[in-house]
Amino acid sequence: MVPVTTDGVAEFLDVRPQLFGIAYRMLGSVAEAEDIVQDAWIRWQRTNRDEVQNPAAFLTTTATRLALTAATSARARRETYPGEWLPEPVDTSDDPALGAERAEALDLAVLLLLERLSPAERAVYVLHEAFDYPYRRIGEILEVSEPHARQLARRARLALESGRAEPAPPDMRRRLVETFVAAARDGDLEGLERLFTEDVTARSDGGGKVRASRVDLEGVERVLLFIDNILRKYWSEATFTVVDANGGSALLVTNPAGAAQAVLALDVTTRGVERVLFVVNPDKLRGFGRQ
Predict the structure, then answer these.
(1) Architecture of domain 9-161 in this structure
(2) One MF term from GO for this chain (predicted)?
(3) Boundaries of CATH 1.20.140 in the chain?
């Protein structure tokens, strides 16, 4: 076995943001993505680097394959997850595209849709749409032919396009988030109602650690009642702030001590707000608020 050394640090650091961006999009978890990056680093250190012609390609291939394996096991774990599962939000204030060429496959609502795909379909979509990898190279990483990679991409796009309406442009999304924040601060339920589509849904992820609805709530009336209860019972003294998360605008809720209570993401399409995603699991809020 090649001993672990400190050589190759520069090459690894150059590509580290991309490795994290791929793993995070594949897994929807900051902690699991960090584990993938760490495993890739260990393998890089144990590799005879004199034989590696392209360090970035080697590391990208390694991280993607590790993420494929992790995605398969993660799917099984989520079958026993307490309540509904949501991706972990990530602060993108310093890197809106999170290591990628484009901020694709980063929105919480899209990450949730990616869970419907097989790990291989997810990998192809992420590598092509976010990182602009050609299908020939994707095929090499996944050890499939180029036509097969294209077929996986078509299936992924069809599944995602059938799952939501046309996404709203960024300026419209931020405007609706800011309007949502103002209405939430004032307890203006009528103002919130005007933002929602008739078939709006709400999903909460408490991870079994804080109180949260264990089922999706559907329809304007149920979603408004849910929000009203939260505002009155749990967030009466909270501070609401618009933050940069997952390549767009989200709502951070903090308690008087500055600790994060929730991150809310709005799935905004040209129809309006179709879904409200409440991440309240404290393990998924470590990147926000005062610790």
Answers:
(1) Up-down Bundle (1.20)
(2) DNA binding
(3) 9-161
